[in-house]
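[Meeting: bench + compute handoff]

Bench side (C.D.) handed over the final construct sequence. Compute side (W.E.) agreed to return the predicted structure before the next meeting so the bench team could plan truncations. Sequence as handed over:
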Amino acid sequence: MEKIERLDWVKSAIIIDDEWEQVKDLNYQLSANGIATIYVNPNPAEDAENVIDSFPENTLSNFGLVFLDIDLGHGHSFKNQVSFVVGALNEWLSPECGPYGVVVWSREEGVPTDEGQDALFYINKAFDGKGFEKPKPLFVTSLDKPSFLTKSDLFRTLTAELKNKLSDSKLASFFSAWQAGVLDSTAESYNYIRDCAEVLTDKVGNSVEDNFLDVVKHATYKHFGFPSKPGDEFEKVLSKFSFCYISHILFDKMNSRFSTGAPESIYDDSIDSVQKVFNTRKLSVLGMKKLMEKTFKANGHGLQKRSLKDIGKKIEKISAKTHENIEAYDDIVARLNFIEIFEVLEGKDGEGLSGTIYRKGGTNKLLINITPPCDVANCKAEGEICLAGSMYMGDTINRARKKHSDNKHGGQKLFLVPPAKFADKFIVLKFNLTKIQRDKDITYKSFLRMKDSTFNDLMQRFGYHNSRLGARNL
């Protein structure tokens, strides 16, 4: 079993404190051990020079840890102090900042709030509240500042203490294992292409840099089915999709690493709230009433109409909350469906590529390009081969599910995509495996691209349906 090192992903840190003398050793030790560090003093002395006291709004990102002193001189109330530092981070952080952890590095570690709450509990609550609008931290933990101020081996003892405190943090464990896999797989992907480039350099000359880009370019041609043609506009599209090709190699490396490894479990005693909501999906208000009435009768007790009505009102009240939970579950499923199946295209992105979905103006009419990628790459394709389809857009997933279910009556000739959430709407796409046409008119524009796994399913269904005896020819 592979041990998860919970802090190996941290390469940068921010120290927010108004007492430089108390944190200068921490700043030095972090920097000396390869962790880039920024010191921030929100209350610098008037004669202080070159001291960062704040960041521009919505700009702070790309850091792993925040060492946060709570008492920065903003009132004697613990709540006011927490409100100030959490508010400052909420202002500074970029909405796109990556995962990070917060270490409350303070003398206030064990101090209770005015209501007697644990200080760390209250700080966690402040970060989790609706007032903190930026990405939430992976974890919030605390260290008693005075006990570390005189440590000669500060970095070793500090990291050991942090790892011990985070041993029960499942989110920190999950991200640490994930980040380690991403970094190692990124290096493997780069080295894989570079090895190919170095072989070319030994055989035909040119620089490793030129050959590296040539290898990626031609691999992108074949993978996506780009025609080999020059042109500034085409080069821009090629550049974009070459990163998609490298990401394809990265995914393979990561998938192999995670599927063959054996990291320590982080699911041993998790509470499965999603399954709990799923189990209550089919239990309607009427169903709950009938179930309760049946239970009473089975035990020799009849229910009067008035009693049943009173019980019904209480059940409806409970059901309303259950319905909210189910809606949240449905929303999550629809969002995950979208990123699993589609990628969004802009402008002419994806034009001519297999799997690209075109939309006719603002209508629900669709075409999907099913031209074999090898034919496009080898310039054997005479225009695009497309399947006609349509899209349903609704406000609720229940309507989308009904649409998906109703269309199943179309039999084997229809390919249906599960309900997904796009632009605040629930969408269902269907394509008719018998409605084949070459090319498209100019009113059809790039809309979405179907990802490989789903597109391969469609092509398998298309091949099966049209290879039957008696199937019409293209």
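W.E. noted at the follow-up: DSSP finds 14 helices and 13 strands in the chain. C.D. will use this when planning the next construct.
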